Amino acid sequence: MYWYYLKTALKNLRSNKKFTIINLVGFAFGISICLAIALFLVKEYSYDRFYKNAAQIVRLTDTKNNSSSIDYRVKDILLSKYSEIENACLVQRKGSPIEVKVGEKGLYLKDIMSVDNNFFDVFSIPFVSGKSQKPFVNINSAVITESTAKILFGTKNPLGEELFIAGDIPVTITAVIQDFPENSSIYAGLLVNAENDQFKFSFSCGDYRDKSTHRWPFRIYLQLNKNVNPDQLLAKINDHIEWLKPYGTQVGFLKLKDIYLHDTTHGSETKQGNAGLLNLLSIIAAIILMLAVINYVNLTVAQQNKRNKDTGVKKTIGANSTDILLHFLFESVLVTFLAFILGIFLVWIGLPFYQAVFDTHLNIGLLFHLRNLLLLLGAIFFIGMISGVGPAVILSGISPVRILSGSAIIVGKRSFFRSSLTVFQFATSIVLIFCVITVERQIQFVKHRNAGFDKEQLLRLDVPGIQQGDIQKMTVLLDELRKSPFIKSISTTDGVPGNINMYMGSNIENSDKNMSVPCLLVDTTFLKTFGINVIKGRNPEPGDYGKVCMINNAAYNHFEFENLENKRFMNGREGGYEIIGVVNDFQYTSLHKTIGPVCIMFIPDLTPTTVNIRLIKGGAGQGMHFIQDTWKKLIPGYPMKYQFYDEWFDSMYRDEERFAKTIGLFAVLAIMISCIGILGLAIFLSERRIKEIGIRKVSGAKISEVMTMLNKNFVKWVLFAFVIATPIAWYAMHKWLENFAYKTALSWWIFALAGLLALGIALLTVSWQSWKAATRNPVEALRYE
């Protein structure tokens, strides 16, 4: 019996080659997109789940300041007070690439992490060589990954080898570990000992570091004992929060498995995924699959007239509705199976393309794991049944008398159902078009919004650590650069807008608004070089350096100052810093966040991390040549690392740009799939009305009038879809824009444009078939068959 169903299904597919090809290609195209998205989702949701103790690991957070930066001293307090904590470790990444020197070879490494020995117990990273238990033999020990060892030492055994970090900090390699897996939110190429004060990468200010509550922030990971309830332990810690003072006022837990996708804290220092993008891709995959199913339904129903006689004959000779139903369902499952095979092939062919779109490696081999194969087979059966049940019920329920008399046409509720599916396709297209336009507008908005300082012709030049052992060489470099006629001004800083290295507790006297404040350590020319204006108070004078600071307008408002008289920033030095002025707000993070308080400290004899260079207008090319030549002459051992501020701030929105490209790409693909279904429906409508078209043409109707008659239903459906899509599109983009502190407006014309584009796409899709039907010889249409 089933063999008969299979032969019949194959016969029907061969006899309707045009519709079979359209069905298979459309279905396979949609399935390939869904499979590619599924591979990406599996990859993203697998982050950090491979660690042996992943279910027991949490990261401590400062809930008051919504920060993951916790003073390192909190770790030992928690271990000594709470038996529920089995282990704990410190983790801190260097915020910017750091220079490493091996012999005479100098280069920058961006993947350096400061950890303690407990890190290797909490996180199960396999060791290649060296001791896995307490691999840091002393404070100058380092652990290196296999790939970084090859970069630094080639084929030479790295164990026992010495290298210098930041110019003059010697470390010895005592162990080699495997590279961190790609789906680890924590990663590094070189791990150094956090017990070495030189590897507490946050800025420290002489003897005052132990008096500060935010001087050496780390990420603190806790490994809880099995069967410990994290919520109960957290409540217990907060009930005795006085044990953590002055380093913490209220803490929280963030599960390791949630860090990659659901971490909203500041100072995380881990890889960050985009949960919103994953949710959106899941929705898009579901929509594309639904569109593919709708196409199958519409195209199957469109073949009704060609298959009516065959169905009628079967019913006349004794086939019941169940037999006809099984015929259609079997055929639907077969088409779905073939579409999945073709879809997997398309994913394999297009894998480089999808990897470029998602900017990650995708493992197509996951599809062939036993569990996933079973899921695919289940999906094939389920989707095949869903795709075929509508046409099967519709076409098997028509009586043989109506079929053989030629009156078996789909009307009433069934016609309404078909129209509803088409409206859904149009509404989907409108929503996707609206989302693409809005995302692109927001990206352009944040890129071109005034940052509060002049980004044009402003260059940031990372300073290698050699100045710690040879300050004179850096002084000579700056003196030489100032001689260039193409350089307008130079400022040296520790931390810059977009990459602040230090956070300090404000400790403003008689204030309940105290908080951890990002701090920039700058020289005398900072304000001039960056084009930042003083709006209250005064500029610093020569005798002020090392004693005064400025705050931005957001800090002035946050602390509710009425004036600056006797206002001091009481951290970092004995007696604090006198606040002498207020500057305009400037963007020191991306526009995802509102500009908050920031403190600018003027430090004499500053050891900088960055040289900021303002080039004259029109002098970028000559200025860059001069800077590069001077660098090679004075610091030949290190590559020059630089970036213009406008390019750097633009790079902060790469995730959004990838988001826009991804949405745009899949919107186009979804619309293409919709067009296949709309084309099938246009063929169905034109074939159903072929005799009416012939009569109208014989009566003198023009081609344009016939095309208008055939297209008007599509215009009506687009209008209905526009009404449905508008509130959905507005809500979706309104929620997405909540991720930005500064956002573009959802203007009315975007809705109108999305509707017009959807209408244009629909008319372009159906007009070819309408024109073909309208220009057909009326004699052929009226010939008795």
What does this structure look like?
The chain is built from 24 helices and 24 strands. It is of the alpha+beta class and 785 residues long. The strands form two sheets. Strands 1, 2, 3, 4, 5, 6, 7, 8, 9, 10, 11, 12 and 13 form a 13-stranded mixed β-sheet that branches. Strands 14, 15, 16, 17, 18, 19, 20, 21, 22, 23 and 24 form an eleven-stranded mixed β-sheet that branches. Strand 20 and strand 21 form a beta hairpin. Helix 8 packs parallel to helix 20, helix 10 packs across helix 12 and helix 14 packs across helix 22. The relative contact order is 0.11.
Alpha-carbon distance between the two ends: 34 Å
CA-atom Rg in angstroms: 34 Å
Q: Percent range for helical residues?
A: 40-55%
Strand content: 15-25%
Mean pLDDT: 80
Oligomer: single chain
Structural class: alpha+beta
Gross morphology is globular
Low-confidence stretches: 203-214, 408-413
Q: What is the total tally of β strands?
A: 24
Number of helices: 24
Topology:
Blueprint: H1 2-15, H2 17-45, E1 57-62, E2 70-71, H3 73-81, E3 85-93, E4 98-102, E5 105-109, E6 112-115, H4 119-122, E7 127-130, E8 141-145, H5 146-153, E9 162-165, E10 169-177, E11 190-193, E12 217-224, H6 230-239, E13 251-255, H7 256-262, H8 275-302, H9 304-316, H10 321-349, H11 351-358, H12 370-396, H13 400-405, H14 412-448, E14 458-462, H15 471-482, E15 487-494, E16 502-505, E17 516-522, H16 526-530, E18 534-537, E19 548-552, H17 553-558, E20 568-569, E21 577-583, E22 599-602, E23 610-615, H18 620-634, E24 642-644, H19 645-651, H20 654-688, H21 690-698, H22 703-737, H23 748-774, H24 778-782
Helix pairs in contact: 1-10, 2-8, 2-10, 2-20, 8-12, 8-14, 8-20, 10-12, 14-20, 14-22, 14-23, 15-18, 20-23, 22-23
